[in-house]
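Lecture notes, unit on binding sites. The following record was shown on slide 14. It pairs a sequence with 4'-deoxy-4'-aminopyridoxal-5'-phosphate.
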Amino acid sequence: MLELKSPTIDRSKLLPASLRDDFPILQQIVHDEHPLVFLDNAASTQRPRQVIEVLRRVYERDYANVHRGIHTLSERSTEQYEEAREKVRAFIGAEKPTEIVFTSGTTAGINLVARSWGDANVKAGDEIIVTTMEHHSNLVPWQQLAERSGAVLKHIPITDDGLLVLDTLDTLLTERTKIVAVASVSNVLGTINPVTEITRRAHAAGAVVLIDAAQSVPHLATNVREIGADFLAFSGHKMLAPTGIGVLFGREELLDAMPAFLGGGSMINRVWEDRFTPAELPAKFEAGTPPIAPAIALGAAIDYLKLIGLENVQRHEHELCRYAYERLLEVDGLRILGAPPDRRAGLVSFTLPEPHAHDIAQLLDERGIAVRAGHHCTWPLHDRLKIAASTRASFYLYNTPAEVDLLVEVVGEIRERFRPKGRKRRGGS
Ligand code: PMP
């Protein structure tokens, strides 16, 4: 009989498990007896005490509206809000704080670009390039822009292994291409896309590049200048910060030339009865009262990630993901979607012949394991893979090998329970 080599884990690559003590929400028992195993981090992460404490301090001591009031609390809030912008700038290597626009999340940032930059620059017959693996957030806004403008939407295809077929890019790019919008990491396949290379080629063709960095900024060190990105969007809630806060990075020259998007308070310089002049960057794109405390807490989340070191976070997740990838393949009939471990970030999506992904997620939940099931807002990708749904386990800095072991054990049990009667397990040890 074939001797299978058991996957092992290199503990020297992991972060200390004591780090979990920082996350009160992880210390709970669900369904009366099962310690919570939280493997739904690609959807949203949890917050450490250090971030929760900052939120509490802001609301207990410092909170007031920013930029407008000439009083102590408003000054404190404004100072901390702008400090958070500076932390974001440094974290992603942007040149100036004016290039950092606070939004409500990745979706809002991409829509801002599609509406403001898109409506001003994309005309009938122009071309927009996306990929087959995009989240609906980086697809539907471009479909809407194509509908409004008469532009043509093109897709970089993927291989069966979940990698972009980059050879097609040179034929897809033409003098009519206005923008290439691509995810740096797929939220389903985990593929790390070569965004620097894509950006270089797009620029050579005269197109601008938007990067959907929702799944990369929280996990992989990011430098917008090294990538050469024109726009890059991400969400706070996927990197230990609250919901309702996100970031759009845009090169100053582009943001400056773009018309204001949402109109209202804060985004104006002067208003008359019949017209207005827009404020300077970044206020021009921050209409209305912004998410003040969430932005300050995003700054605290960045402090926390920097303390741990993003390179350590990345190594930890990569090791866990490789281990999960290899161990899940022990389950007979399980199919992992996408790239091999060395080309992917910390998540694994899979299917079983039986049962349906939603049932797998529910059965895992009964044992305290939180995963996500469905099409993960990537319907065209699931069509391409000829599957209706998948189950996704996604890791962050607080996950452990013991949690991966439990996941594999319970998935194995589910597989056995739903195996058609009379069918023997194939091969294996
Ligand atoms: N893009 C990708 C790749 C994502 O994974 C997500 C979140 N699942 C989004 C965009 C949208 O992020 P948000 O819902 O925070 O706007």
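Take-home: The pocket of 4'-deoxy-4'-aminopyridoxal-5'-phosphate is lined by residues 42-43, 105-107, 135, 137-138, 183, 187, 212, 214-215, 235, 377 (CB under 6 Å).
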